[in-house]
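[Help] Beginner question about ligand-bound structures

Sorry if this is basic. My supervisor gave me a protein sequence and a SMILES string for zinc ion and asked me to "get the holo structure". I don't really know what that means in practice or what format the answer should be in. Inputs are pasted below exactly as I got them.
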Amino acid sequence: MDLIANLASRQTHLTAIRRDIHAHPELAFEEHRTAELVASRLEALGIETHRGIGRTGVVGVVRAGTSTRAIGLRADMDALPITERNDFHHHSRHPGRMHACGHDGHTTMLLGAAEWLAQQGGFDGTVYLLFQPAEEGDGGAREMIEDGLFERFPMEAVFGMHNWPGFTAGHFAVHDGPVMACADRFDIEIRGHGAHAAMPHLGVDPVVVGAALVQALQAIASRAVDPLDAVVVSVTQFHAGEAYNVIPERAQLAGTVRAFRPEVQDRVEEVMQRICTGVAAAFGAQVNFEYRRGYPPTINTSAEAALCAKVAEEVVGATGVDTACRPSMGAEDFSYFLQERPGAYVWIGNGPGEGGCTLHNPHYDFNDAILAPGVAYWVRLAQTLLPR
Ligand SMILES: [Zn+2]
Ligand SMILES: [Zn+2]
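Answer (accepted):
No worries, everyone starts somewhere. Holo just means with the ligand present. The predicted complex, written as structure tokens, is below.
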């Protein structure tokens, strides 16, 4: 049976599932309705189904033939704390919750692949379908791993896919190496000495120290890290003071660091500490600096990335696959899976990002036209990696 032609005939069915999930978004580790929808659909297909992996995660096990080989395909299920501004029929029924990153589409594409693989097979081995909770900041992938994912479901490689607005609908981008950066966080607390704003010489002004620090931290990217290494140091919060005529006691800065290599993360942390200590001392203030590692960088392994590119070419043709695309400084917790097993995380174009149809925007929507190529990619990837 022709895969692509058949999937085109499933468009209405897949779209209905996607829009149902879109209308009922759930935040990190609260994906109870979504997980139940996934699990009950898998069970209806006769697929061995495990609930509660990493709290609200679900794993489906599809077996065919006699091979002991196995791979994992992953979709994320969580939504974002955003109030949707779209007014189409399938808009979010819950203010303050929205599928603004397309995880509704990712879940649907993997369900579509589950249907095909369970009914048509065409592979020899085991495909683990990983429906992951809490990608948006809470590390659902790590929770699944800590819950024994790779011991309970031993797999030789693991694969992920994310829609990408601004990239031609249904085209694929496959990176050999880094795809997404790490997402570290820092907090800086400056303690000065409060005073009357008209008598600044009697105090130590933490606002002036904070302003100097924000400036000094810009020198990390330009002067402390090899220019051939990508790095972002963004101060995103600056809190201080409450009155027009009072120099406050404290100021707080916070922000994020993005990089692709652990050596760069180490270097940034070391230099940030030095700048904080030095600048605060220069002004006679005290400082407390905290640096916390977040999601690791997402790094595809070469052999698996090459296989993914080949499969994507087969699905959409060579002109629809970009293997020279730049990585993003965004982050993704699929990185935790890639720390455990080889694999690759690819992007599928969501079409133009017009009208705010960009990730994490209240006007975003997943493009239903890419459901079929997404499902076809998963199916052909499983069949290629686990050949009969
Ligand atoms: Zn997101
Ligand atoms: Zn996402």
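A couple of things worth pointing out: The chain has a mean pLDDT of 97. The longest helix spans residues 262-283. Feel free to follow up in the thread.
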